Amino acid sequence: MSKKITDNLKVNTQASNDKGEKYIICLFVSGNLPNSARAVVNIKAICEKYLKDRYELEIIDIYQHPDLAITEQIVALPVLIKKFPKPEERMVGDLSNTEEVLKGLGLV
Amino acid sequence: MKNFRFPKSPTGIQGLDEITNGGIPKNRPTLLLGNTGSGKTILAMEFLVNGIVLFDEPAVFMAFEEKKEDLLMNLKSLGYNLDTHIANNKIYIEQVLINPDEMRETGMYDLEGLFVRLEQAIYKVMAKRVVLDSLDILFYGLDNKILRSEFLRLLTWLKKMKVTAIITSEIGDHFLTHMGIEEYVADCVIALDNRVTNQIATRRLRIVKYRGSFHGNNEYPFTIDEKGISVYPIISEEFQQEPTSKRISSGIKDLDDMLGKKGFYEGSSILISGTAGTGKTSTAASFAHSVCKAKKRCLFCAFEEAPKQIIRNMGSIGFHLDPLVKSGILTFYYSRPSLQNLELHFIAIKKIINEIKPTVVILDPITNLMTEGPNSDIRSMLTRFIDFLKTQHITVMFTAAITVGSIERNPSDEGISSMVDTWMMVQDIEIDAERRRSLCVMKSRGMAHSTEMRKFKISSKGITLLPIVANSKGPLADSKRKAKEHDNLSTSKESIWVNESPFNENTK
Q1: Does residue B67 belong to the interface with chain A, where contact is any CB pair within 8 Å?
Q2: Same fold? B8-233, B243-507
Q3: B193 close to B208: Cβ distance less than 8 angstroms
Q4: Domain assignments of chain A as residue spans, ordered by start
């Protein structure tokens, strides 16, 4: 269902491409919990499809780096943070709603 | 089972540990509900600070609502300086920024991040006490299903961590009460309230629920001042001391005579009511004077006249209070009623009482405090105050000003008179076209007292009470009067005049 929606979306792959900007995104996960595991799969798929060759994805396990939870002010998990291009954008959840993710990334 | 006692964690807050019978549930979360500005944060913080200072239990404060700097600043203004505790690793404050507006939901999530941070924080100082302030901010904008499951998870997790936690939350239109979550998950629920009636704000505290423990279930007023929070509990019967049959002189010989010839009971409460200028303060001062002369401490709380003025005025009728004040046996507490509200007065007075341990406390006049709030509040507060004094075995005398014509109807007066042990009324009456001061004992529990209305004479030598001459043909023969008085004393019942006008009886 969600796949169908995204197929019809007009994905703006051009705008950012012109400037040659790379997307820097961080995904914070809580170990291997189901939501986190799904989020990892989802973000990888989205990046490959819409941001191929112009993204840097960092996946951080909050259990391994608990101090980052404070500096990044993380409460809800998993959370995807778009660091660049500005403005910073946060998306919580397992990223199964691709439309929302694309909106958050500024690709729609 | 009978002797089983829930492990409790004392809050160290004056009054709260009494009504909770020892504190909040140890190693369990307690919900603290209340509107904005009802004092949740302060109460929670005091719980933590007391934990550090009194019980050596390190603490974690998770602030969702306020910025750390603002929080520390606010607390400083209330006399809490956390800097040393922070430096000593006794308290760890973490600000948790939540901005739901910039959060996009893309699917299932939980609040694992919070748990990670909380765990980290607890281990940082090896905390035994934790405060989460407030839940509403944390859960704002959260899906109901997630919220519910995460809230339950949080409570279970806190129990598992073996910390005594306070979770604050606003009550009203928010989720907690709506969903009834707290009803079955929290072991202890405390509600705070800051109510404004007649433009006077009164803070109240109520234990909504305390699983497995007895607790006071009334609403208790509480205050926040520079010394922290004080909850004003009703003192339960068991703490009441045995009443004594010891007597204390009123300082007026004639009045002692009217009171079964011996004066007041020690540790009783005495009310003098009367219209303006009838000699209430003088009677009170006379009592204070005699108490101090007997080398007993007295606290005189003046709400109308300044102490210096009282000293001067009383000097003119033969009560020299100045040397007594200088020797420290007589203490004045002076405050204009508008400065603080009623409960603050009582707490301030209570603090002085605990300091100087007086035998007698005088409140002059209590009616000035009454302009402060609605009657029911005053009554309950006065009752509590009287109870407190009784447990301390302190004799208390109030004066109450009433307006002419309202003697029988004055609601505040009726309210107090039923609470006191001895009630005297001073009033101006008209005898043979002349206005005279008079005094009568309306009631006096547990003693045969005169029902006579006496002429109340204040002169430079003090106060005397003379029989009233009803006709102008000269006084009754002394022997006759004495016989009549003797009659009165032996047959009188308690407060037989309460529902009748003493005025009519005596001037017919």
Answers
A1: no
A2: yes
A3: no
A4: 21-72+81-105
Closest Cα in chain B to A70 = B117
DSSP B214-228: ----SEEEEEEETTE
Is domain B243-507 in CATH 3.40.50.300, yes or no?
yes
Cβ-based contacts of A90 with chain B (< 8 Å): 102-104
Provide the β-strand partners of residue B400: B273
pLDDT tens for the 508 residues of chain B, in order: 445 667 899 998 878 888 888 899 999 999 898 888 788 888 999 999 999 999 999 999 999 888 888 888 888 877 778 889 999 999 999 999 887 666 788 999 999 999 999 999 999 999 999 999 988 877 777 777 787 788 889 999 999 999 999 999 886 545 555 555 655 667 888 888 887 765 566 788 888 888 877 777 777 878 776 667 777 665 544 455 667 788 999 888 888 988 888 889 988 889 888 887 788 888 999 999 999 988 999 999 888 888 999 999 998 888 899 999 999 899 998 887 654 566 667 777 887 888 889 999 998 887 765 554 455 566 666 777 787 788 788 899 988 877 655 444 454 455 566 778 888 888 887 776 777 888 888 888 888 888 888 888 888 878 888 887 655 444 555 665 566 666 666 654 444 444 444 444 444 4
Measure CB to CB from residue A100 to each of B97, B104, B116 and give the nearest one: B104
Assign domain B8-233 to its CATH architecture: 3-Layer(aba) Sandwich (3.40)
Residue type, A76: A
Q: What interface predicted TM-score (ipTM) does this complex get?
A: 0.84
Q: What does each C-alpha distance from A6 to A14, A100, A107, B255 come to in angstroms?
A: 17, 10, 11, 96
**Domain positions in chain B:** 8-233, 243-507
Which residues of B are catalytically annotated?
65, 304
Cα distance between residue B185 and residue B180, in whole Å: 9
From chain A, the residues in CB contact with B117 under 8 A are 66, 69-70, 74-75
CB-CB neighbours of B76 under 10 Å: 12
pTM: 0.64
Task: Please answer yes or no on whether B110 and A35 come within 8 Å at the CB atom.
Answer: yes
